[in-house]
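Database export, one record per block. Field names are fixed; values are copied verbatim from the stored entry.
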Amino acid sequence: MSGAATPISDYAHKTVNWSIFLSILLILAGFCTLLVPFVGGAVITIFVGWAMIISGITHLVFAWKTHTTGTRLWELLLGLVYLFAGFYLIVHPLSGLASLTLLLAFYLFFEGIFEIVNFFQVRPRHGAGWLLVDGLITLLLAWMIWRSWPFSSAWAIGTLVGISMLFSGFSRLMLAMSAKRLIKAF
């Protein structure tokens, strides 16, 4: 057993380098998803399908662990619905992508409405106008997706996730680079 301890700065340096590497991978994945949003959307659909299958299995396990009949039946039915929906998304990713795109349009519509309502509630506060702008842009995006549905399935989810991955990658890269400068300062 070695008596020499590894300084915390060595761990911090390794962690920052991994963070930079993973940020670059996230940026590249975002660019790839933006270049081929349909493929990105299909991959996301399959990922959601697997997540639903895991959730369905969890509900089925919980159904056998519960002690009341009503809860057991409810958990069993819920688990079967999750399993069915998950398998459907995996077996039919294109129609699943169309369904998820329509769901996204409804989600964005209600989010836009809630942002506009929130604007009217906090209107006297400084900067509240940004809530109105956010709500209107979200409503516009929901309308664009809904108006061209099911054709918007080819671009909507992949494009939005690609943009999110791109910005997440850049923001994490900037944080990691800032942390690297701090480590060098010490």
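Remark 1: Residues 12-185 form one domain.
Remark 2: The mean pLDDT is 86.
End of record.
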